[in-house]
Design goal:
The protein is an alpha/beta fold. It has helices at residues 4-14, 148-156, 195-205, 220-232, 252-259, 293-311, 364-369; strands at residues 20-24, 37-38, 48-49, 53-56, 64-71, 85-89, 101-104, 108-111, 114-117, 127-128, 139-140, 161-165, 169-174, 179-180, 191-192, 209-212, 237-241, 262-266, 270-271, 277-281, 284-289, 322-326, 337-347, 350-355, 372-376, 388-393. It has four domains: 4-19 and 166-311, MoaB/Mog-like domain (Molybdenum Cofactor Biosythetic Enzyme, Chain A), CATH 3.40.980; 20-43 and 133-165, Molybdopterin biosynthesis moea protein, domain 2 (Alpha-Beta Complex), CATH 3.90.105; 48-128, Molybdopterin biosynthesis moea protein, domain 3 (Molybdopterin biosynthesis moeA protein, domain 3); 322-393, Beta-clip (Beta Barrel). The two termini are 26 Å apart. Bound molecules: adenosine monophosphate and magnesium ion. The site of magnesium ion (MG) has 6 residues, from loops.
Length: 394
């Protein structure tokens, strides 16, 4: 069986990069920039006052100045301040010519149209120089995943829209005679199709366009038709859930064969998630996830989300491991890498992590309380409390 790392590399090799599209800035949260965004102006575009007060020339404490004008945000003062003069100024307003500093209003006594500087002059000139935030040659590099502050920055650069990678279209197909969507009226031998809810949410967060197709029962014809439906929807990635092992009711591998999918691999040295498979047909990529809820979600984090990032054109796509110290001992790991459900926190002496006692791959309660996967590499010897391990936040 191939390793997780080998399988990840094979999955990523299958994924073509999607095209770019132009979208409104307000819709760009979480999207991947396709082109660099260049500033169209300096910010601030003029030297601006950082405080409410008085713009003054070269002055000292106790000097008396005539207030000759006012500069407010959006309404600058056109003149030049000369000796003995001051201009009333407000935060964000352009600093007039001739001004060397803004004295805050609390440090001034005003009588009619004159002010007296009542406090000593400080080092703080209370002026934001033109271009202090960014100059007109500033640019945000391509492939950045846009966060809320990026949207404000791009807006300040005077762009109402951005060029981003199109959202990869990901079809999600649950398979199994036992499955029913939530809210239905299950027979005693039925269970609820839960996996798509986690996977759909993860895909949305990662900037993909997921589409949950109707559940495919364990009937070859229906599975074939559902794969065709996903293709007709122009899926970039078709994900099946369940039916991935080699039991009598595990129909996905034969269905993918019938569909003409060239298989890259089937089965990996991993726990949970051993039956994972991947392949492609033309530009369409297929990922067969195991049905157990924890297996499906863990494989989603380790394989599917990196594939989405790769489709966006990103290169650094695999989950980033962090170092943490075990709070409890762990037994040796066998011939498959174990991604244990665990909780980490920042302790007084660094990051600590505790694996849950229950590691059954069907247990959603454990998964929902986990905030990381704790990696036990193949053949890892038993660990003591305080030993270091690698974790992947989820
Ligand atoms: P399978 O891989 O089809 O053998 O499924 C493994 C286990 O996961 C079985 O207990 C299935 O009932 C369960 N399972 C399969 N698909 C789903 C799903 N979409 N949501 C929740 N459980 C599932
Ligand atoms: Mg099944």
């Amino acid at each position: 069986m191939i390793t997780v790392e080998q399988a990840q590399a094979m999955c990523l090799d299958l994924v073509p990069q999607v095209e770019d599209e132009t979208i409104a800035l307000e819709d760009a949260l979480g999207r991947t920039l396709a082109d660099p965004v260049k500033a169209k102006r300096d910010q601030p575009p003029f030297s601006a006052s950082a405080m409410d007060g008085y713009a003054v020339g070269d002055v000292a404490q106790h000097v008396v100045l005539d207030v000759v004008g006012e500069s407010a945000a959006g309404h600058g003062w056109d003149g030049t301040i000369t000796a003995g003069q001051a201009v009333r100024i407000f935060t964000g307003a352009p600093v007039p010519n001739g001004a060397m500093r803004v004295v805050i209003q609390e440090n001034v006594e005003r009588v009619d149209d004159t002010i007296t500087l009542s406090e000593p002059i400080t080092d703080n000139i209370n002026i934001r120089p033109q271009g202090a935030d960014f100059k007109s040659y500033f640019e945000i590099p391509a492939l950045r995943v846009l966060n809320p502050a990026d949207l404000a920055l791009i807006a300040a650069m005077n762009h109402p829209s951005v060029r981003v990678a199109r959202r990869p279209r990901v079809a999600l197909i649950s398979t199994g005679d036992e499955l029913l969507m939530p809210g239905g009226d299950p027979n005693p031998d039925q269970i609820i199709a839960s996996n798509v809810f986690a996977l759909q949410a993860m895909l949305r967060q990662a900037g993909a366009d997921p589409n949950v197709l109707p559940i495919a029962p364990d009937t070859p014809d229906v599975l074939d038709k559902t794969l065709q439906d996903a293709t007709d929807w122009c899926a970039d990635i078709i994900v099946t859930i369940g039916g991935a092992s080699v039991g009598d009711h595990d129909l996905v591998a034969p269905a993918l064969d019938r569909f003409g999918v060239t298989r890259s691999f089937h089965k990996i040295a991993m726990r949970p998630g051993k039956p994972l498979m991947a392949g492609s047909k033309g530009p369409t990529v297929f990922l067969g996830l195991p049905g157990n809820p924890v297996s499906a979600v863990v494989c989603g984090h380790l394989f599917l989300l990196p594939m989405v990032r790769r489709a966006h054109g990103q290169t650094d796509v695999l989950p980033r491991g962090l170092n943490a110290q075990l709070t409890t001992p762990l037994p040796a790991c066998g011939p498959r890498a174990h991604y244990m459900r665990a909780r980490f926190e920042e302790g007084e002496n660094g990051r600590i992590v505790t694996a849950f006692d229950k590691q059954d791959s069907s247990m959603l309660t454990v998964l929902s309380n986990a905030n990381c996967l704790l990696l036990r590499p193949i053949g890892d010897p038993a660990k003591s409390a305080n030993d270091r391990v690698t974790i992947y936040p989820i």
